Amino acid sequence: MKTKWMAAVLALALVASCGAIMSYAQGPGGGPGWGHQHGPMGHMFADLNLTDAQKQQVKSIMEANKANMHGLMQQMMQNRLAMLQATSNGAYDQAKIQALATQKAQIEVQMTMQHEALQHQIYTQVLTPEQRTQLDEKHANEINRITQHLQKLQSGATPAPEE
Description:
By secondary structure, the protein is mainly alpha-helical. The protein has helices at about 1-25, 40-45, 50-65, 65-85, 95-125, 130-155.
């Protein structure tokens, strides 16, 4: 029963992440969640006014990398299942939990590397110089926002909640 449930959760996670990416590639109004949630990659490229050709390029890049991301998501779900099984009924085997946590971290590294490689590919192969400049400005603003937040945390001030 748990295996079927976890398979359903994995399928939903895959559909949700790929769906968000594909809805972004379709453009405004092209899929659910466009107004506020842009998916794993969409937020990076929001407000850049991609042309239809660029949207198709993004979609093609995402499709080409779908199998790899699916494999990583499956590994992550298997790890989560193993962690849940290892801690069922109040069980606590520190060595086993440490091994699973280490495995999870390694999978997250691979997922982050894949995500950043896709962003780089889109940045270098799809965006115009003007769009790159606009994206670079958004990136700099995000760096400044995080830096200010860290400074507040270091000074002991209570930061305002994120929007």
